[in-house]
Amino acid sequence: MTTNSRGSLKREKTVTFAIFLALPLIFFLTAYVYAVGYTGWLSLHSWDGLSPHWDWVGMDNYQDLMGSSRFWHSLVNNLQWLVFYLICPTVLGLALAVLVDGKLKGEGIMKTLIFLPYIITPVAVAAVWRWIYMPADGLLTSALEGVGLGGLAQNWLGDAGIVNGALMFAALWSATGFAFLVFFSGLRSVPVETIEAARIDGASSWVIFWRVVLPQLWPSTVLVLGLFGIEAMRIFDLIWSMTNGGPARASEVLATQLYDVAFTTFQMGEASAIGIVQLLLAAALILPYIIYITSHVEEQSE
Amino acid sequence: MKIDKLLTAGALSAGLMPLQAAAQDAQIWSYWGTGAEAAALEALVDVNNSENADTPIGTRTISGNSSEMRRAMQVSFLGGTPPAVYQSGFGMDLKSFLDAERIANIDSVIADVPGVAEMSSGIKRVVSFDGDMYAVPLNLHIISNVFYNTAIFDELGIEPPKTAEEFRAAAEKIDAAGYEVLGNAGGGSWTFYTAFPFLIEELGQDDLFAFTSGEIPFTDERVVTAFQEWTDTYVDNYMENWSGYSWADTAAQFAQGKVAMYQMGDWLSAYLADAGWTAGEQYDFFSAPGLDGAVVVQMDVLAKPSGLDEATSAVADAFLKTASGAEGQLAFNVKKGSVAANPESTDEGYSAYGELAYQQIQEATAADKVIPNPKFLFPTKLDEEIKNDTIAYAQDPSEEALMEMLEKLDAMRVELEDAGEFIKW
User: What fold characterizes domain B145-296+374-418?
Assistant: First the structure.
């Protein structure tokens, strides 16, 4: 190959790469960088969403947020959701995957039943669970009364003390399917030979799971934890559809507060400040995950 | 000569075309997109387009509510393509458009329409600024009526109460008989709505406007008394677990005969009609205690954006005249199940409940006691706090909690007053 044709091939490659990169780059710059920059700039202003003029307020919106008990309450709720997502659907999804993995009759049906709730849109999930949680005629209360445990029935979505737990249970029903699917796929990729070898060495089922299977599920675990971590920081639709953040803001999280401040009281600057804080918090939680996954998991797959 | 004429005709056509195109595209934007609401708007547009065949108007539905409408309007202003007319809230919502210089003064357009001058002063007060009207009050829904189950009242020998004292006596009998006394719902401002009659009784109409203008503290003795009376009469008698119900969920409990009374907007009558109930038979209603002939109403208004081109502006003006007139309002309200704001409109075609509500509003209009929903007169930020605080308080009422709530709200009132956020209604 001559120097000229080599140079021509290199140029062609460069152009091809540039073309392929241009689209996502343009999309990233316009849909993300510009939008975040615009929101950040707006967060330094006061604007009612209608007036042609923005009033410069500097860091006032952020100062107001830091002094607002409503903001801290929402943030605490987000952190509760984070703890919930990282533990409950993750552990339950893993347990179900281990249970179903080749040990149950009707595996196909079980897989479908467990995964199905995850593909239902959150608004539909909310509608179903609102009905289940109805105080008087709801399924849960009726079922409890049916088995003589009516005394345990609660005002599931109307009591500030238990509303977050009730919402999380609905989310658990929906999210477990995702964790199940990822862990189930992970289990299928664990080499049978390693398990057999451990069994021949006399290891118990528990030891095999803990020492052999679980370490090999690490990529699946990282994926599930990472995505659930993101979900915990951006959760909106399920809460908004079921309680609007109520009763009396008890179930409010940053995303629902942002929506309420932006589109009910039309304080666009303050809402933007909430959005920026939410972004920074999510970044603080998610960036280590992204750094980890782009290094370790890729190394492992190699 | 022929060429001259052709050129002149061509030039005129070219000049007129944009105007005609704009006029043909002129629309009313609303969120009346389905069911009775969509049918109501269609009926109004039909009246308009037959009355004003040269300036017809089209419709466009903005899915959602006033928030989505606001966003759609914002985008339309940015793009320079606002509609001819749009559905708006009254009070603070309307004022925010005026402050942003986005709505037109329509006083001269509708002032001469028969019946407009006779509209209740309370209604005109919340669509007018500096004495000029900026929106057409189109429909009224009473939100101060207490619906009751006639079978339960008959069974217990209860007469519709007129005072808070009579209400409490009736509540005692209902509770003793094992029924839920009074329906309520979580979310929204339903809980705050039920406090209006007590505030009106204590403050009177003029001072209620002063209260919503930020001139009367939440810790004012009369306001405190109103909330105490509300607690004793209503809050203590709310149905169990009310905060877990939507208004429609509670309506279902009422329609199942489990709840004896329910103060709700008169759209409840449409819900009950669907359940096979008829006003005066399975259910009836009475004015909330202490109102003395006054009614509190929820209403939709129509406004015209500022800066429209000439042709679109002409379409808007013609439509607003129709919408404020007796015939247009009748066409709309018969379908929607509300009552016309124009007192010259008749009750022809109204439902059994609609006829009674019409009569109630006519009498209140004659006495100048039609009071627009105070919720929409407070600064939005304060209104949101009141909404949430009243829900939280009513779930666990006590004298201490009441004072704590009122003091917190008053601190916000002072802050917003200092920031110039109140409007002097």
Answer: D-Maltodextrin-Binding Protein; domain 2 (3.40.190)
Residues contacting residue A124 through CB under 8 Å, at least 6 positions apart: none
Could you give the number of structural domains in chain A?
1
Rounded to whole angstroms, how far apart are CA atoms A44 and A58? 5
Residues of B in contact with A159 (CB under 8 A): 243-244, 395
Is residue A169 in some structural domain? yes
Q: Do domains B2-141+298-364 and B145-296+374-418 have the same CATH topology?
A: yes
Neighbours of A301 (CB within 10 A): 7
What is the CA B16 to chain-centroid distance, rounded? 40
B258 touches chain A (CB under 8 A): yes
Query: CA torsion, points B189, B190, B192, B196, in degrees to nearest 10?
Result: 120
Q: Which residue has the tokens 């009910």?
A: A264
The alpha carbon of residue A118 is apart from the nearest alpha carbon of chain B, in Å, by 25
Would A47 be classed as within a structural domain? no
Does residue B22 have a pLDDT over 70? no
- CA of B124 vs chain A CAs: smallest distance (Å): 24
- Is residue A133 included in any domain, yes or no? yes
B220 DSSP assignment:
S
Task: List the 177-196 stretch of B: residues with Cβ below 8 A of A.
Answer: 186-187
**CB contact at 8 A, B255 and B271:** yes
The token pair that represents B396 in the structure block: 């666990």
Closest residue, chain A, to B188 (C-alpha): A244
C-alpha to C-alpha distance for A163 and A239, rounded to whole angstroms:
10
State the burial class of residue A162 (Cβ atoms within 10 Å of its Cβ: 0-12, 13-18, 19+): middle
> Residue A3's pLDDT is what?
60
Per-chain mean pLDDT for chain B: 91
| Residue corresponding to tokens 């986005």 | B102
Judged on CB neighbours under 10 Å (0-12, 13-18, 19+), B379 is buried
CA atoms within 13 A on the CB side of A243: 31
Banded model confidence at residue A79, pLDDT cuts 50, 70, 90: very high
Q: Where are the domains of chain B?
A: 2-141+298-364, 145-296+374-418
Report how far apart, in Å, the C-alpha atoms of B115 and of each of A82, A88, B314, B326 are: 59, 64, 22, 7
DSSP one-letter string for B38-93: HHHHHHHHHHHHHHTTTS--EEEE-SSSHHHHHHHHHHHHHHT---SEEEE-STHH
Determine which helix (DSSP H) or strand (DSSP E) holds B135, and give its type and residue range. Answer: strand B135-142
Among the partner residues B100, B240, B244, nearest to A156 by beta-carbon distance? B244
Give me the helices (H) in B92-246, please: 92-99, 107-110, 121-125, 150-156, 164-176, 190-193, 196-212, 221-233
- CA gap A129, A140 in Å, rounded: 9
B384 interfacial to chain A (CB closer than 8 Å): yes
Nearest CA in chain A to B77: A50
Q: What is the pLDDT of residues A106-151, one digit of tens each?
A: 788 888 888 889 988 889 999 999 999 999 889 999 999 999 888 8
Domain with A275, as residue range(s), is 70-301
pLDDT at B402: 97
A155 touches chain B (CB under 8 A): yes
CATH code matching the domain that covers B2-141+298-364, chosen among 3.40.50.300, 3.90.245.10, 3.40.50.10540, 3.40.190.10: 3.40.190.10
Contacts 24+ apart (CB under 8 A), B412-420: B412/B381, B412/B382, B412/B385, B413/B214, B413/B217, B413/B218, B413/B382, B416/B214, B416/B379, B416/B381, B416/B382, B417/B214
ipTM reported for the complex, 2 dp: 0.82
Number of Cβ pairs < 8 A linking chain A and chain B = 84
